[in-house]
Amino acid sequence: MSNPGTTGTTRPPATDDATDLARFGYKQELERSLGSFSSFAAGFSYISIMTGVFQLFGFGFASGGPAFVWSWPLVFIGQGAVALCFAEMAGQFPLAGGVYQWSKQIARPVTSWMAGWIMTIGAIVTAAAVAVAYQIILPQVSLAFQIVGGADDAGVTSTANGAKNAILLALGLVVFTTVVNIVGVRLMAKINNLGVAVELIGVTLLIVMLAVHIKRGPQVVLHTAGTGDGHSWGYLGAFLVASIMSAYVFYGFDTAGSLAEETREPRRHAPRAILRAITAAFLAGGLLMLVGMMAVGDIDAKELGTLGMPYLIKSTLGTGLGDAFLVCSAVAITVCCLAVQTAAIRLLFSMARDGRLPFGAALARVSPRSSTPVAPAVVTGVLTIALLLVNIGNQRVFYILTSVAIILFYIPYLLVTAPMLLRRLRGRWPREEQGPFFTMGRWGVVVNVVAVVYGVAMTVNLAWPRTAIYGDDQWYYTWGAVVFTAVISAVGGLLYLRYRSHHGAPQGAAATEPVADDGLAGEA
Q1: Could you count the other beta carbons within 10 Å of the beta carbon of residue 58?
Q2: Quick check: is 515 in a domain?
Q3: How far apart (Å, rounded) are the C-alpha atoms in residues 260 and 91?
Q4: How many whole angstroms separate alpha carbon 415 and alpha carbon 438?
Q5: Using CB atoms within 10 A of its CB, is residue 474 exposed (0-12), middle (13-18) or buried (19+)?
Q6: Is 431 part of any domain?
Q7: For residue 221, is it within any domain?
Q8: DSSP code, position 157
Q9: The domain spanning residue 86 has which CATH number?
Q10: I need a surface site. Which of 207, 408, 463, 509 has the fewest CB within 10 A?
Q11: Which domain holds residue 221?
Q12: Does residue 454 fall inside a structural domain?
């Protein structure tokens, strides 16, 4: 496997990034100001250990007991294979919009359209799911954040007042991230970089301090706590439900690719950022959960399944230190939501400038003052707020939003990795025209197969209508993920028929004269 940065042709210097972009037919409109750390930070903050682990540890523990943590390395292997495929893509196609553009370059127009459309909706749902996580953290720091209800509702979404309060806190966060993204990428990067630094330092100190309080050995991860009882498949059924926790954390690493047109030397930095982000998240999150379960006083405490990681930390380290780390988690949630919306904005912008969306001219317009596509920022903010308001008071909203959000990312990921595998099998990948800035070499086919098989298997697992996730009192809850995904796909299909004549060609001010087509697009 070659090192990122190794090329078959001469790499364009940083000052020539705009010329490199012009090879694909686009003008440099976004502000190219992000460096190596900012690129890494975008992917890491999207994954966000102190968001995902704090948010869903309780769900994983309640569903599978301490042994649920084995889903962590298994999901990492599957998504790691996807990340390696994306690293190759990021070196070949350094374009805003990431997954949409990658699919566009190697697949048929309908494939890239559906990848971009489904992922756009997925990003909006994810932003809502992340913002709701404030409810898990802030009321446990201070009851002043429990605006609706009282102490019994603090830190949970399973009560009516807890669910309402979750939406109120989420609304404030989405308004903040929307304003930041309107102001510009420089402010976004400064806040995001600071947040990631706080998260990295915080999670490292937290692991060390929990390690000081270890009370039991690592064999704790072999205990199932009887969670397999009642499942028709025994513990395997419980484990598949619990694996949703890990699946929720390990996505969004492709954000570094989405910001390629705002990154200096993106062919070199983006592949590295993708792989570093997912690897850092795996190590930090795995150690945090392992050491935490080894350190907590009562491993059988029911609060581990209801209040989750915040309870584990506060009961082990005490209220003062526990609250300090919960504040770090709140910072991580803030920048995670910011990164999610930032990626969604670039995806909308990328599709709009290709003439693939309604009101494309407005959505593709870049502000001359902030060098930012303002309209997509407003649209993503408004749609996220609308989604939250529709679900106000819904006690099941947390898990439904989470499950649907993951599915709406796994499908677009497959719409890149599957066409990529077809090209490999036909001997047409990796291509040499642009120079492979990152290549898996002879391991490419094996890794690509793992990425596709894992993606299909996890998508089925996530959409599977189970009462443990979706409930069984109403059919539209039980089948909610399947129905929602089907509706989104159907609407996307109708919109594709309306805008298919554009075939992804750059439109208006974004367009410039591209290099000759190399004939790669449109086979898969």
Answers
A1: 23
A2: no
A3: 10
A4: 20
A5: exposed
A6: yes
A7: yes
A8: S
A9: 1.20.1740.10
A10: 509
A11: 50-463
A12: yes
